Amino acid sequence: MSARAQPAPSTEMMALAGDCSLAEPVKQPTELFPWLKCKITLELPVVGFTIHDLLELRVGTIVETSCKATSDVPFRVNGTLIGWTEFEVIGNTLAARITELA
Predict the structure, then answer these.
(1) Lower Cβ count inside 10 Å, N or C end of the chain?
(2) Reported pTM
(3) What kind of architecture, by CATH, is found in domain 34-101?
(4) pLDDT digit string (tens) for the chain, length 102 residues
(5) Complete DSSP assignment for 63-91
């Protein structure tokens, strides 16, 4: 019996076989997609708000929330709860400080 020479395995085959020595290190999502935009929302629950209340909204209307002044507010990115925040004023700007991660 003669032994035939086997071709060298391709990078794809080595990756399938679990040999990652030739593979590049896996990058973190922040390295891969730093330009990707996110929608951030802070939610203030308003209990008992009705269609009538909506139709009566005018400039200067105050809408009372169900949050206490010391309550943390849910912080979401693209609809996914990330944590909770509290509001702060920095100069003339309203800001949110992360108080807890989900």
Answers:
(1) N
(2) 0.56
(3) Roll (2.30)
(4) 555 555 555 555 555 555 555 667 777 877 788 888 889 998 888 889 999 999 999 999 999 888 887 789 999 999 999 999 998 999 999 999 999 999
(5) ---SS-TT--EEEEETTEEEEEEEEEEET
> How far apart, in whole angstroms, are the C-alpha atoms of residue 2 and residue 6?
12
**Domain spans of the chain, in order of start:** 34-101
Alpha-carbon span 74 to 98, nearest angstrom: 10
Q: Is 14 exposed, middle or buried (0-12, 13-18, 19+ CB in 10 A)?
A: middle
What tokens appear for 71 in the block? 């309550």
Tokens of 101: 């991660």
